[in-house]
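[step 3/7] fold_predict: job queued, chain A
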Amino acid sequence: MPLISRVATRAYYRFSVGGMRVPAEGPVLLVANHNNGLMDPAFVTVAAEREVRFLAKAPLIAHPYIGWLVRAVGSIPVYRIQDDPRLVGQNRDIFIDVHGALARGAAVGIFPEGTSHSGSRLSPIKTGAARIALGAARRIGRDFPIMAVGLVYRDRNSFRSEARVVVGDAFDWSDLAARSDEKFAVRELTKRIDEAMRRVTLNLDSGEDAAIVHIAEQIWAAEHGSPRDSESTVSRLAMTASVFQRFRSRGDAEWQATARELRAHARMLQRMGLTPQTLKQNVSWPAAARWLLMRLPLITAIPLASLALLAYWPPVQAAIWAGRHNGEGPDSESTYRTLGIALFGTIWTLLASAIAGFLGGWIAALAALLLLPMAAIGAAMVAERRRLRWLAVRRFFVRHLHRRRLSRMRARQVAIAKHLDELLELGLQ
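[step 4/7] structure written:
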């Protein structure tokens, strides 16, 4: 499962993992936010770097298309009232199974919000995670690590967009593990889980604010030379979101002006093919020439890569269609796209191999079966690098052809960063 999760997440997103390390062995309960379907469990598994058993809603395990995958990773079914009230009683046995898994030293993953959603903030946390932890603690005879995993997506449905994964520190709940007042213990532990999750997630009342918060964080980080690792980035995003929410909730005129300024700057950067960080860079002609010479092999590979990508155009388009029409909402789009590429790509490869075998014999069929997937993977890698290199070349020429315009944008970005400093300082008081 960790290998499959890493391949799936790396193929679809550009992501990084930061924060604390999950213990390599022993019981641990991982609690994460949930707004990206089956990609969320994959990211939690990547962050844990070990096998993780997840609690999943029963309909997902019985799903005709993806149920096999959910069952294959040892998921434990949870029966919800809204799915079938008659089966809720079976959750007692499930709790016993989860307690046993933790007692045997397993890592268990749960999404305390109770369901996947497309919102921009945490939904109210259910008590299930706290009940599982307290029940397992009684069986083990002690408490064990509960660690929050924050998943922050720049644009969860866009191919090769950014994703940030942050593992929070295990918090202390030893005072609750042996508490006789179970209702108090459940309520208090649920509160601590909620607080731990909010420290590693981005919470916004409006989805429209997400883009503003992201560009504000990028400007602030660029102008202050701040690290871009996941932990630092999500921490800054959460702080910025918290401050902006305070201004926004009271209809502050300064917040509205700042939001308009950030949107305008973001649009200008997009038109110029720049980011807040690259706006600061100054590349000389000799440096650009050396850069191009080092990438000549990549340039020669582009025609072959283009042919390979063209050959796999039908299954890729089929996967995109499946993602858009998955029937479960936008939070499952990337899941269906990823699974669709694997499924339709495999079928397409087998069909192409069969045609090659019919025309050229078994050697041609075997060659097609082995070489086509390798060519497709290589083409995707070249295409990704080509896209990034083209952006870099475009930025170089933009920088030298629009010096005055960029100088004005640079001054504007510095002024925005200074204004953000003032707002953040005011908002944190």
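[step 5/7] annotate
Residues 285-405 form one domain.
The two ends are 45 Å apart (CA to CA).
exit 0
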